[in-house]
Records
---
Amino acid sequence: MRPEMIVLQNGRVLDPATGVDGARTVRIENGRIAAIDDPGARQPAGAQVLDCAGRWIVPGLVDLHVHLREPGEEYKETILSGLRSAVAGGFTAVVSMPNTKPVIDNAHLVRFVLDKAKEAGLAKVYPSGATTKGQKGEALAEYGDMKSAGAVMMTDDGHPVMNPGIMRRALEYAKAFDLPIMVHEEDLNLAAGGCMHEGTVSMRLGLKGFPAAAEDVMVLRDIELASLTGGRLHIGHLSTAGAVRAVREAKRRGLRVTAEATPHHFTLTDEAVATYDTNAKMCPPLRSQEHVDAVLEGLADGTIDAIATDHAPHSSVEKDVEFERASNGIVGLETAVPLTLALVRRGVIGEKRAIELLSTGPCRAFGLPGGTLAVGAAADVTVIDPAAEWTVEPASFESKGRNSPFGGWKVQGRAVLVMVDGRIVHGGEQRSR
Ligand SMILES: [Zn+2]
């Protein structure tokens, strides 16, 4: 049914990888980018032509941090529903997290995720495996087996690796397979059961907070361990001024350290917790303005490599409870584009940098394919209408999760067409399923 040739016409091509920024026509043949032509260039007969006037044609967006919840918590999300959410948000590829039930700490479960993803036929999935068996922070998992099965990264996300000796060995072992280790930085002794950022807001609300230093000390520790081992360290959901400073300095030292920040951490402050809304409960917690400002600076100056959503769907069972008892996390995939473009409108970052943070940067951080519209590359393409105004309605999310602090927000910017390997998986005239 689908034509072999699709032409995206009249759009603005914005590709940080090749430096192209301007009116171009994109021709896609047999799942690959066949040509980036001047707007008036004649196109071969028989192509399906899609008009992209007023829109940006960008490399498919890539999210380094997504919880798909399968196996084990399919009531929160399945690989299929998570990938529907991904493409609705403009993402053509996601890195899945291993803190499922059971934990993905072996090649068999890595293959399970890849098989399910292939069946879904929507966004691509790059699975990650656990740093330690069962994410218990004790014995290292089998990185070589998992990499052979398709894993691109190791992480105990959701939990810090508290033992620095284990962390050192993890970095050394992962280095042998050239795999990054992503870290969830939270010193549990300093956090001491706190449920939000420690500061004036936690004091006012009478909620137990924990200090930004719980993140800072772990980031500093792991940067030194990356220096000691020469391993690849990726700081997940970085949220503090201290962490931004530490990563900036690590890069200056030439260490193999990368970092990501989430839309919620650069958009909201701990004031969002003021109504005890559990949709504002996450880990790391929402921080005070000085930390948000530091993260914005890190996004602008290149310290932070990627915007990642930490998409973390939960059901009402986990969220409709007292604040202290609620699970951490929010639905992230479907609101990332407008929240990122809001930074452009505020003048924090430019348009090209926004796309770099959502696509080229994440691919570079983990050495993933994609992140470019170069001729010959797989046609993973996202078309964004930067002017589209819409209201965030969690009830109509493609994700099974409804836990978003952005419900009711009027936002601007949306992915209107998403192609994976040249196939339209969201928007356009057809949908895959
Ligand atoms: Zn996470």
---
Amino acid sequence: MLFRTITKENFKKMVEGLMEENEVIGPKSRDRDKEGNKIYRFLKLNCFDELEMDYTRSYSSPKDYFLPFKEDLATYRLENNGWDQKIHYTIHPRIIIGMRACDINALLKLDQVMLKSAYPNPYYFARRRNTLIIGLDHEPLEDCFCRSMNTDTASHGFDLFLTDIGDRYFAAINSDTAYIVLNRFNAREVREEDQLRYKKVKKQIESKFKTQVDITILPELMDLEFESEVWKKWGDKCLSCGSCAMVCPTCYCYGVEEDIDLSFTQATKRRFLYSCNLIDFATVAGGYNFRPDAHIRLKYRYYHQFRGFEEAFNQSLCVGCNRCGKACPAGISPKAVIDDLIKTEKE
Ligand code: SF4
Ligand code: SF4
């Protein structure tokens, strides 16, 4: 990997230059929560000043730009004696600025399923291929457990990764495009003083991780505690609202619906994100629901995150952002559930 530094002034010019020809997306505050804290989302930027590089956590993840909540897969029209089908999966080039390491790692996990499986998803592929990713180092929040999930740093999956070292950014370069763009805006070779500042910032970030989740024996523990009362304890609180999956950067369960025009001459096939916590997720033809209880559905979401994905891809699906814990109206978080499972196992 190559490294350069770019002054904040030149970074601003760079973003403004990129905006001239591309859609640029970044963290923006949209509202405030009940404690008065800003609520951030990744949104289209109209000018550089809208970009809030000091954002804390975005409520939902940049996954929205790769797996949107709703997307039309195809439209059909019956004409004369034939039919016409339209499929749109091309997008204009775009840039996402400010992605955290955990969200970049989340995309790499989605890649395993969406790009490297037996049936790659062309819609996801088009978005992934046409999106330039500029990552950004952050100090962790109190409840982030990305360090436990080994996703607090990213070594690939981005074009450029920035660390704020004062008046400039220390930039890790991971693609030709990023290299060319950076050099157009007077990036300079890394000097000794930059290295020292970079190391200091990294140490500071490392010292701020407070929340830990012990995942060392997790896949085995999940099997040992399959019948545990822990699932009932937390599952009985679950409102089956699906918020956890909607904000999660790695959840990808979906449903497909066909929207048929009343004239019966045209239709749209639409895909929408779904959640395995929703009451009808496991309802099959004939109306039988093989996961009718909230605690069973909750258990299977955890099984997918910490057990099933591990078996299929040798890694957890969760990246430890705790967005699900923050969004859950019932106060259910991975740390609380896993800690309980570990405690039960030790009793
Ligand atoms: S902490 Fe929750 S929202 Fe974040 S990746 Fe893990 S399961 Fe998803
Ligand atoms: S957000 Fe909480 S209450 Fe809603 S489905 Fe997820 S675990 Fe259940």
